[in-house]
Amino acid sequence: YSINKSYTKRVVRKAVDKMEDSFTVQSKDNITYLIKPFIVTRFACQRSRLSAMQKKVREHLTEHFKTIDSKNVFQQVISNAIQVELRGILKKIHPLAISEIRVLQRL
């Protein structure tokens, strides 16, 4: 699963910040996935808030993937269930424009 590069370029405008990350997570049945979240804020913010959001994203996705078996991983990402849940957590730190998972790949 991946999002087009042109979409990410179109979404990032002036006076907004983006946060990208890349890490691996394991599902409930010990299958490893490479995940790359993509977060865009509504307006510019401090680096401390971006790093707090990055830390929260890693923490939440690692815990969430431990409860999902491999059959439901891609289904939840495609249906935006994980992204909506993530957005609800991150908007408490800073207002968000977009919360997506840019790449999800089975290793």
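That was protein one. Protein two is written in the same sequence-then-structure order:
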Amino acid sequence: IPAPTPGIGPAAFITSNLKVTPSAIEPGNEVTVVVTVTNTGGQMGTYTVVLKIQEDDKEIQDIKTQDVTLAAGASQNVSLVLKILDEGHYVLMVDKLSELLEVIHRQ
């Protein structure tokens, strides 16, 4: 079976270029997570970006979602802002992409 050709068929989405800014914050400050969503299919469609977080070795949790509607072949950056109150080392994830975030008190 041949691989699907981009731009043909129903909407299909890929995510790329996950960025967390800044990569270290103090508790209670905001961090911005940006990911690029691309519709590789042949029709307009809506994709739900799900931002997940894992602190140290704790359970992974869904913390924010945002829908994005894209025409066939279109890309868009999706920004999610969150505030983290507790110190720790976090992994922020969208699909199979991940970035680290450190939350520490600065002296």
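The radius of gyration is 16 Å. Keep this in mind for the problem set.
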